[in-house]
Amino acid sequence: MDVPAASWLADRRRSLRRIAVVTGAGISAESGLPTFRGEDALWQGRNPMELFTPEALATRTRESWELFDRLRVLSARAEPNAGHRALAALARSHGVTLATQNIDGLHQRAGSRDVLELHGTLWRLSCAGCGHAGVNETAPLPLLPPPCPACGGPLRPDVVMFGEPLPADALRAATRAAETCDLMLVVGTSGAVYPAAGLPAIARAYGALLVEINPAPTELSAQMDYAARGTAAMLLPVIVRALRGD
Ligand code: NAD
Ligand code: ZN
């Protein structure tokens, strides 16, 4: 375990009051949810980057929806891990803004509030035809695509697919947190998907310290003040204790 990361932060903790956290698929890996770039049975040889596009949803609707539905089933069965829980605990002692690229809802289930869902969520469905939108937690869904309860048209998941813009409010709030934080924790993200991957550069430009928590180097590693090599569930509890002075 990378205990040096914890003592490095403990030495600086008094000046680190406001903390922004950016998470990616890696934080949910230890809950059993596969990352996009990892090898896993979920994708079964299919490329999520091809199927998670508005074009695929329009023309290969069933195939695209099958993948979303499988991710909903896996997410519903999964439990938040020690990494999710440590971040929820951090918000009890510090000003924390948590921005996630994940669509699984595990941060909220671990107790984090006001999570900025940069890429939306699997659990809200909406209808392009009539504008209906609502929470739907049935997994698996009995019909794919699920029909709109208001007009019967096909629903889509409220996730940001490749090529689509991010929800403006969440991105604005995450940018503001990057500009005003003392410390940014960058957890389990490959840093390949923009604009989320641009948040660390903003934080750095505004003078924050950057710490990466990831077992492998990423495209963001070079910007970090400290790169802690290990998994989120192993490292975050130790790092959060160090920040809290426990
Ligand atoms: P990514 O798949 O590109 O990268 C995952 C990163 O996590 C890698 O850098 C990897 O080294 C790291 N990682 C793997 N195991 C880890 C662990 N145990 N602890 C910490 N880090 C670990 O993921 P991304 O950067 O989030 O971008 C992919 C996109 O895919 C995002 O937009 C996201 O919305 C979506 N996605 C979401 C989920 C989910 O909601 N759980 C799952 C897959 C993909
Ligand atoms: Zn409708």
Describe the protein in words.
The strands form two sheets. A six-stranded parallel sheet has the order 3-2-1-7-8-9, sandwiched between helices. The chain is built from nine helices and nine strands. Helix content is 34%, strand content 17%. A hairpin with a 5-residue loop joins strand 4 (120-127) and strand 5. The model has no long low-confidence stretch (mean pLDDT 94). Helix 1 runs parallel beside helix 9 (232-244). The longest helix has 17 residues, at 61-77. It has two domains: 1-33 and 80-119 and 166-246, TPP-binding domain (Rossmann fold); 37-77 and 120-159, SIR2/SIRT2 'Small Domain' (2-Layer Sandwich), CATH 3.30.1600. It has helices spanning 3-12, 48-51, 54-59, 61-77, 82-90, 106-109, 168-180, 199-205, 232-244; strands at 18-23, 95-100, 116-117, 120-127, 133-135, 155-159, 183-187, 209-213, 226-228.
